[in-house]
Backbone:
């Protein structure tokens, strides 16, 4: 639903006189359907007595007060004009990108306007709980519009904003390093600090050593499979080998081939070996 406001007596603020909702039409404050068009006591935007349709595209007869602060290149006084100039409120004394937007709107919507400069020449901020600058003029109904006023959370609590018509792509500026990436053959190291690279390389060797050790200790690894097979195989050859190695206090490893589980376990590809080299690579 939309509120129907009376702009006629602007000195006393806007007055709500009805509502409009799709499918229900126009209603007065009592909620009764009312025929608004053709009444002599209701004048719509543009000085017309017929209810407008669509978006209002005519503000004929309206004179707006535009809040303006001297901020080149957006709004600034033209050469030859000053704040003490009698016609400082005239559009002929002001220029700037924001005011070009206002001038174009005035031509398209057929309204006239004048400039109003806040006494403190500020855009508007909170000082000890009180607003100043253009925001103060808006709250006191001394201006109708303030082009270029940036959106902030405190301001949205007291004034309304249109859709943005200007975006400022502001960035931070910093001093570039003396060696540009294009001339530095080690440019690929620049994303990280040297301490980070040392830490990454150290972890690579540490993790490689850990995986290699686990591969040797695991009964399913390249080295562990033959040992596990030798310890679990029940053939006579493996039994005699186990006793011999235990007697000689040798490690349970073997390089000979036999027709038993040890031979089968030893047929793995050398590339699958979790050696320190393979683990690190």
Residues:
């Amino acid at each position: 639903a939309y509120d129907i406001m009376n702009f006629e007596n602007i000195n006393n603020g806007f007055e709500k006189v009805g509502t409009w909702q799709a499918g229900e039409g126009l209603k007065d404050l009592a909620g009764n359907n009312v025929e608004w068009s053709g009444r002599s006591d209701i004048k719509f935007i543009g000085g017309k007595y017929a209810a407008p349709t669509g978006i209002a595209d005519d503000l004929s007869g309206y004179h707006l007060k535009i809040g303006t602060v001297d901020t080149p290149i957006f709004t600034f006084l033209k050469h030859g004009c000053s704040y003490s100039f009698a016609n400082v409120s005239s559009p002929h004394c002001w220029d700037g990108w924001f005011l070009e937007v206002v001038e174009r709107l005035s031509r398209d919507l057929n309204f006239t306007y004048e400039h109003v400069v806040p006494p403190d020449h500020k855009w508007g901020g909170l000082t000890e709980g009180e607003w100043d600058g253009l925001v103060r003029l808006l709250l006191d109904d001394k201006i109708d519009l303030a082009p270029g006023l940036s959106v902030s959370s405190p301001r949205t609590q007291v004034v309304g904003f249109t859709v943005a018509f200007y975006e400022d792509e502001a960035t931070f500026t910093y001093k570039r390093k003396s060696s540009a990436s294009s001339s530095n053959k080690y440019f690929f190291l620049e994303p990280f600090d040297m301490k980070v690279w040392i830490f990454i390389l150290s972890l690579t060797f540490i993790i490689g050593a850990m995986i290699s050790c686990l591969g040797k200790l695991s009964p399913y690894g390249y080295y562990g499979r033959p040992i596990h097979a030798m310890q679990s195989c029940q053939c006579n050859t493996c039994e005699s080998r186990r006793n011999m190695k235990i007697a000689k206090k040798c490690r349970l490893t073997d390089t000979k081939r036999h027709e038993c589980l040890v031979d089968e376990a030893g047929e793995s590809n050398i590339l699958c070996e979790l050696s320190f080299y393979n683990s690190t690579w």
